[in-house]
Amino acid sequence: VLGLLVWALIADTTYHLHAAYGWVMFVSIFFWIVTVLFFVTYLLQLQQKFYVIPWPIVLMIFNAAATILYITAFVTCAAAVQPTSWRQWDYNRRAAASFFAGLVMIAYGASTFFSFRAWKGLGSNAATSQVTDHA
């Protein structure tokens, strides 16, 4: 939802006059679409049909890539905000887009952490990891 908000806020400005906002638009649109595809995959439980794919590592790599690229988008968006822009609403929307890009970056970072824990299996306790089926 926050990535869609970044996309909408930038799209509502005169972003085509500044090349830096093209990168922010690309990152926000691309990762919003891929995140929706992953959401639909998990919602429909398609990961169980494609059991050959190592989903925990795929999700961790995706979240790590999204975090890194959203860091660049956040820095680019924040650096390109000019308080002396000729249209005041452009400044407000670009500043808000920078804020929400930062929130998206933090959210993907947290998802990367939890995906790493799921991939490594750090959330289980000792009793469940020692159980074997000998029957």
Automatic annotation (TrEMBL):
Residues 1-120 form the MARVEL domain. Forms oligomers. The chain crosses the membrane at residues 20-44, 51-75, 95-116. It is a multi-pass membrane protein. Pfam families: MARVEL (PF01284). It is found in: Apical cell membrane; Myelin membrane. One of its GO terms (molecular function) is structural constituent of myelin sheath. GO terms for biological process: myelination. This is Plasmolipin. The keyword DNA damage does not apply. PROSITE patterns: MARVEL. The lineage of its organism: Eukaryota, Metazoa, Chordata, Craniata, Vertebrata. One of its GO terms (cellular component) is apical plasma membrane. Belongs to the MAL family.
